[in-house]
Design goal:
By secondary structure, this protein is an all-beta fold. It is built from two helices and 32 strands. The chain has a 28-stranded antiparallel sheet, with no helix packed on it. Strands 16-17 form a two-stranded antiparallel ribbon.
């Protein structure tokens, strides 16, 4: 995988960069597995659509695992991590206020980062019955050039033992012994003794004692108690959690998370979901790429600096899914955090078919701030207004005709952008309306149109100012005519207007295209454009020129994305081959003798007689022939079954079928 970015025009953030990712894995034999990887992103690489990388980090390595026998396994691993560039700046105090009002697209730069870590591992695992023994060697070479070319390298001999004491109790021991003359202060010598107690199949309690040596930074010992939980209290109630109690030189601290989810089925298709989650402890501090700290959002490529703080989340949800033509859901969440950063989040949505051709969608969202700094008397946080939005959409598509398809949407939003408001006053509202449709009266003509309107209003009464309003219009019209199977000609017009500022812009384009394949179209055209704005010299400008266009259907790019599975061709006739003929004896009961007066579903079967059924090739659900009643003349009924004793010619047992009558007495 390869990506390249180029950024310019932003003060202090002009940069170019590339990102690479190469991975390879193979099972050379049934007992030998290998994997190699290379991941790298330049410090100048930018992609705000993902957080799957860290700018300036390069990481590569390989591993090899082999089974020497049924109970013996060896493993070799190499890993190299390089961090370069600049870490995101830690924002505090009034810098956070300024960043909130004008966040921009990039995080402010922080301290430089220039460090590397090389790790080599070699290990052996041996199984002795239920006992597992591990022995390994780890070499680490850490260099931080930012701190004056400080270099730490260490070699450790790591041994471990896993011993089941009972079916639900396991003893674990691990020793990390530094060998050689140098040590790494981050990885001191350590001995760990622990017990895993499986209280229930879903609940494990772990008690461990860690002893440290060769370190002036770490405490002499740490005692920890961990509870790992994934328990179904009932078919509809699930309890999950992880909680750790740590005792060290800073006293006793707790870290973990606990969650409880319950679904209450009120009636078929109507459910209530209740949830609770508690996060204990902080996820802050220094890491290889910089410092993690509390912040409301990560700007640009600074996701690695997001920190976690303690807090609780309470949620309740309601959903109705029993009707295929109407579905709805609603959810409310209340989140509390340290420092009074409480937040309420409300969401609701619905979808339904008003008719076979008309579908309606709706969604409501409401939320407030989180992880904001509170200044004197909490005045800063209280000046952040609530954000809400309501969206409604209609879609028209006739299932029997694609002559016309249309979309209509409306959105009402309150404080859609980040604003710093005085409590109870300043509010920004926006109305957005859009409509688009496509009309194809025949195989050659196609018309497409779109219109959008956005109206905004800002209430500035707290500042002694009148309200400020603004309206923007956008329109587009496109007509295409197919000259043949591969060629077409297209005309298009676009219009943008902002009447409050006397700004108007229009454009016309003529284009011809060629379909290389039914999904790939290449085109060339000429555009005519003009804009009228008071900021221009003479308030008017126009320009035009040639352009190239390429259109490709995404379903060919993403393995059928956007396509519905086509139902397989239905057979119009049912056919059973000769070797698949079914004996009536296999489907008829043997314990009923029609001559004794019993009721036999295969009443026309003679004792000792076998009837072979050859279904007709006449329909998707084949109609099977009628078995002639005793005394009927088979020659006068084309659907009669010709029967014969077993010793007769097999062809005599074939069935001549008629699609008009079912078999009586067989099914």
């Amino acid at each position: 995988e390869y990506a390249q970015s180029s950024l310019s025009g932003t003060p202090g953030n002009n940069a170019n960069g590339s990102a690479y990712r190469i991975e390879a894995s193979s099972e050379f034999t049934d007992n030998l597995y290998g994997r190699a990887y290379w991941r790298s992103a330049d410090s100048g690489f930018s992609n705000t659509a993902t957080s799957s990388f860290r700018p300036g980090q390069t990481r590569y390595g390989a591993e090899l695992a082999a089974l020497l026998g049924q109970d013996t396994q060896i493993e070799f691993q190499f890993d190299q991590e390089d961090n370069r560039g600049t870490a995101p700046g830690v924002i505090t105090g009034f810098d956070a206020l300024r960043n909130l009002r004008t966040p921009g697209a990039f995080a402010p730069p922080g301290t430089p980062v220039d460090n590397s870590l090389t790790t080599l591992r070699a290990g052996l695992q041996q199984q002795f019955g239920d006992i597992t023994f591990d022995l390994g060697y780890v070499y680490r070479d850490r260099t931080d050039r930012r701190l004056g070319a400080q270099d730490f390298n260490s070699s450790q001999l790591v041994s471990g033992l896993t011993l089941p004491l009972a079916s639900n109790l396991t003893f674990r021991a691990q020793n990390e012994l530094n060998i050689g003359g140098s040590t790494d202060p981050i990885y001191p010598g350590r001995t760990v003794l622990g017990l895993d107690w499986q209280v229930l199949p879903e609940v494990t309690v772990r008690v461990a004692q860690q002893f440290f040596s060769d370190s002036d930074v770490a405490p002499d010992s740490i005692t920890s108690v961990d509870t790992l939980l994934d328990y179904d209290l009932s078919d509809n109630t699930q309890l999950t959690g992880r909680y750790s109690v740590l005792g060290g030189f800073n006293g006793v601290t707790g870290q973990g998370a606990l969650g409880l989810n319950h679904r209450w089925n009120i009636s078929p298709g109507l459910n209530v979901d209740l949830g609770y989650e508690r996060v204990i402890g902080e996820g802050l501090g220094l890491i290889g790429t910089g410092e993690r700290f509390v912040q409301p959002f990560a700007i640009g490529q600074s996701a690695s600096a997001l920190g976690i703080v303690p807090g609780s989340t309470y949620s309740i949800g309601l959903e109705y899914l029993d009707n295929s033509s109407f579905q709805a859901s609603a959810r409310a969440e209340y989140r509390d955090g340290q420092g009074g950063n409480d937040n309420t989040v409300l969401t609701a949505s619905l979808a339904g078919k008003l008719s076979p051709s008309l579908t309606a969608l709706g969604r409501f969202e409401y939320a407030n701030y989180a992880n904001q700094y509170n200044f004197v008397n909490n005045t800063f946080a209280s000046r952040l207004g609530n954000t809400s939005s309501f969206k409604l959409g209609l879609a028209y598509r006739n299932p029997n005709s694609d002559t016309f398809n249309g979309l209509l949407s409306y959105e009402f939003a309150t404080n859609p952008s980040i604003t710093l408001n005085t409590p109870g006053s300043d509010t920004i509202t926006e109305h957005t309306l859009s409509a688009e449709g496509i009309y194809a009266p025949g195989p050659r003509w196609e018309f497409y149109g779109k219109y959008g309107l956005r109206s905004s209003n800002a209430n500035l009464s707290s500042l002694g100012l009148s309200s400020v309003s603004n309206t923007i219009h956008l329109a587009q019209l496109r007509a295409a005519y197919r000259l043949g199977y591969r060629w077409d000609i297209v005309g298009e017009a676009r219009y943008i207007a902002q009447p409050s500022t006397n700004y108007y812009e229009s454009a016309l384009a003529l284009e011809t295209g060629y379909y290389v394949t039914p999904d790939l179209r290449l085109g060339v055209g000429y555009s005519f454009g003009a804009a009228d704005d008071r900021s221009f010299q003479n308030s008017y400008r126009d320009d035009g020129g040639f352009y190239l266009a390429a259109t490709f259907k995404v379903n060919e790019l993403f393995n059928g994305f956007g396509l519905q599975d086509v139902a397989p061709a239905q057979q119009t006739e049912a056919l059973v081959e000769r070797d698949e003929e079914i004996a009536v004896d296999d489907v008829c009961p043997e314990g009923v003798d029609p001559r004794g007066g019993g009721v036999d579903p295969c009443e026309n079967r003679e004792i000792g007689e076998t009837i072979f059924i050859q279904p007709s090739e006449s329909d998707i659900r084949p109609a099977l022939p009628a078995i002639s009643e005793p005394g009927d003349d088979a020659d006068n009924d084309a659907g009669a079954v010709q029967t014969a004793p077993p010793e007769a010619d097999s062809d005599a047992g074939a069935v001549q079928t008629s699609p008009s009558e079912p078999i009586r007495g067989l099914w």
